[in-house]
Amino acid sequence: MDKYGSFKRDFDAADFDGQMALELVKYVGMLNRCMDRAIKDGTPHDSVVTFLRELGEGLNADRTYIFQVNANDCFDNTFEWCAEGVEKEINELQDLPFDFYSTHWVSAFAEKEGYYITDMEAYRELDPEMYAILKPQKIDQLAICPFFFEGRMVGAIGVDNPGADSFELCLPILQLSSSYMASLLRHSLFVEKGAQIDPLTGLMSLANFRDQLMEQKNKHQEQLDVVYIDVTNFKVFNREHGFGAGDELLRTLSRVIQTIAGTHYAARAVADHFYVLVPDDKAEAIIKAVHDEMINDERFAVSIRAGIYALDSDDELFTPAVDRARMAANNTVGDYQNYYLRYNSKMEVDLMRTNYLLSHIDEAVKKGWIKVFYQPIVDTFSQKISTFEALARWIDPAYGFMNPAEFIDVLEQGHLIHKLDLFILEQVCRDLRDAAAAGRPHPAVSVNLSRYDLEMPGLHDKINGLLAKYGVDRDEIRIEITESALLNNGADLIKEHIRRFHEDGYQVWLDDFGSGFSSLNSLQNFDFDLLKIDMDFLRHANEKTPIILMDVIDMAKRLNIETLAEGVEEKEEYDFLHELGCVLTQGYYFSKPRPKEELAQVIAEKQLEYETPDEHFFYRKIGKVNVLNASYPFSEENERPSSQTLPVTILLVKDDVYQTIYANKTSKDGVKYLGVETMAEANLLINDPSKPFFSQIQTLLHRADQKKGVAESNFVAPHYLGKMKAKLIAVNGDTRAYLVSCQDYTLGNVGL
């Protein structure tokens, strides 16, 4: 037997010796008992569950399961048995598109054949993407066999990790089982009509609901609505509380729906997807009551979202009606206020666009419709380009130029966003390699990861593999994660991803800081290297805004986290951020996102330069200084800074020439005590050897060099007497950066 490949589905007893034939007889008996029980009871559920258990135990397997094709021509994991200690996957494997499976499996299914793997590591070479899905589930071996009804594939039965001595027996058992399953499920109306009752909740099955819906629509004169309901972040609930709690939540929700709606015309389709048929004038009140009941239930405290579709007299088909109700729900924000919507025709147009995007993402990647645009990120201290952010643009032959807002959410909801994000990363790696080979500057680039990427098995191996393929160092890539990902994924999962990224040598940035419900928790619970703050925060400003922004930057500095303001459009915004010590800035003030071919021209027009690698490291050190409070950099690490606003200046010194690259407002106002009006004049003064202040600064900085810590000296000016402190904060070759502050002022009439 090969290490992987297809096997014929048709069973032929001539293929087996006497001993194996005897073994197979036992399983034939199991299948017959399963069929007899289903025919007698009228439902296959218990029979199938029993058979999968006996099959799994007999083969000493980890998992046995059945997938069935649903009304959307996607796969649902409808039955699963797991050995003790093996984690369930059934709730995660719902509504899977056909291309979820390996192309090699699909080809086998098309030929009415099954597929097996006896050596997962060998299979990795053939299909690394499927390997990345299977390996995290601890699957080392598997066999899966499709079953058919009237020539159409309607499902598959599979076994994971059968015992070492059982694999040869596994294939003929699946050959037999697949035929039995097709007959069994057909007999009990699972294929043609579906089960009448959902076994978990006791509600109608979706197929039964379909028949009842069309019958009731034709019978009633009053307007009827199809209402779709699901649980917000149900996967997160399952992950954090376990599948047992998830099942209890679904049973509770089903009782609440049925009680409040006062009808038996309620169904559970799959996972947390519910439908109910109600009078139009009661639909919204029912949704609100269900929502309030669930969110106030202390055991669960979950929110729901819902969609309403008003049945039309012309509605003759079931699927469009339920799809439109679900479509309306998918258009809700999903928060506590806006959790339901009524269907409107614009949603249909949006759905057509959505379906187009989902069905053309592979073609868009292959044919180059997806482009990488780069936006520079500028350091406010060096005033040079520090890094770039890579952003996706879709230039489509049918829809034209599309911004991320037009396709990112669609790809996320379709669980295809990984195809876009990995393509963008690969293109960035290719561009970095080409720039390095041509001797062009190539600063680090930040790339975005979706919250759904974080659920993808093998994510880190894929990312590391792409960088290795193009010879890109890991310190050339920054990983951006949106704050919403922290709300939609479990905390332990996020922590593990961040830990792994750091272990592999990447910086991890938190995008859209402040947009979530628990931003402070983001800082407390997760180890981010940088916060990205959207400047929309300032544009909707009031008198509290600068205070909040200052405190955010101050807090980040004390936590050794860098800050970046994105969406900077005006010089005044840039200057304000620089004064607060926000080191990195990004926005249209410098350049809108551009394809790489246009970057050189834009950078030349804006008179921007690139930081060299040494400069980048140098200014990163400077950027970590908390310029909002001069006492902090001179204090012990855990000492609370003074609330007094003191003069703060950062000086660069090269060849005994002093340059001020930062001065806060107090420092700028204080130059009058030097007998000048502006910082430019102060710069001339401190570079004039004929002035006493030149020697004072020179002596102080020389002490700071020698002490390798904080140096102090008295400060004498025409109208001032005080104490100066200086600290060496960064060195780049013959360029040195110092933090300088004046403290303990005593106003006096002191002459030079």
Automatic annotation (TrEMBL):
Molecular function GO labels: cyclic-guanylate-specific phosphodiesterase activity
Sequence ranges assigned to domain GGDEF in this UniProt record: 222-345
PROSITE patterns noted in UniProt: EAL, GGDEF
Listed PANTHER family: CYCLIC DI-GMP PHOSPHODIESTERASE PDED-RELATED (PTHR33121:SF79), CYCLIC DI-GMP PHOSPHODIESTERASE PDEF (PTHR33121)
Domain EAL positions: 354-607
Listed CDD domains: EAL (cd01948)
Name of the protein this chain belongs to: EAL domain-containing protein
InterPro entries: Cyclic-di-GMP_PDE-like, EAL_dom, EAL_sf, GAF-like_dom_sf, GGDEF_dom, Nucleotide_cyclase, Rev_trsase/Diguanyl_cyclase
Organism: Lactobacillus porci
A Pfam cross-reference name: GGDEF
